[in-house]
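debug: dumping io for the single-chain case to check the tokenizer round-trip. Nothing else runs in this session.
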Amino acid sequence: MLITESPPRERARPAAVLLAQAWLQRNEARVRLIATIISVVSPVLIGIADQYNGDIQLSVLYVLPIVLGTWVVGLRFGIALIVLSVGVQLVRDLITTFVWSSAMVPLWNAAIRAVFYSAVILLVTGIRELHNIIEARVQNRTQSLRALLEEHRQLEREMLDISDREQRRIGNDLHDGLAQHLTGTVLTGAVLLQKLEARDADEASDARKIVRLIEDAISLSRNVAKGLNPVELHDDALMYALREFSSNTSKLFNITCLFKCDDPVLMDSPAEAVHLFRIA
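debug: decoded output
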């Protein structure tokens, strides 16, 4: 029976995660467009909310669209978002200050925010590159394992084919060589038995036993040959082989063994037919 190694199981993931990943892969361009729009619009909306929020500043919230745009679109887009976010906050600070003589304070705050956001996008970019490297390594490793598994299966199939061919060759040699030679020996022994019986010799009984033993050897060699090559090379050979097997079983063990197959089962693969016969 053909036994193959199962492929390595991946770690179980929730169905929702798998569906989300499949949807993202199919709609990558749409996701990038949506992320771009959200990343551009969010700083403006956060700036308006920050303007009317009072004393509590929302500078930290600008990190979210910057991180989103950098992760989905890229580093250059993240730098553009930094410029946009810092510009929105700078305008908000200048409008709130009303004293242009102290404009250095908003400029200083804008510089600090730019440095902070730059550190954030550098960190996000590094994580993104590391993620891509790990994902590429995982894909390469998965492909290597699949190729190795396929090679193992191919070698296994070739070994089974070689074994099947050798069994068929030995079976044919037994049937066409040894069985035919024993048949000739039986004929010679039968002639000798007739001569002994014609002379009413005492050795006739011994000759009869020898002929019977040789006939048993012929049946044994044919059964061995049939076992090595049980299924012929045609579509309905498995049904005939199983029917003959049931008949031989009935004769050998003196029991009732029947083979029933109402609908014809055709096998186009001799190797699979042999495996099924041996299982039976």
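debug: round-trip ok. Residues 1-12 have pLDDT under 50 and may be disordered.
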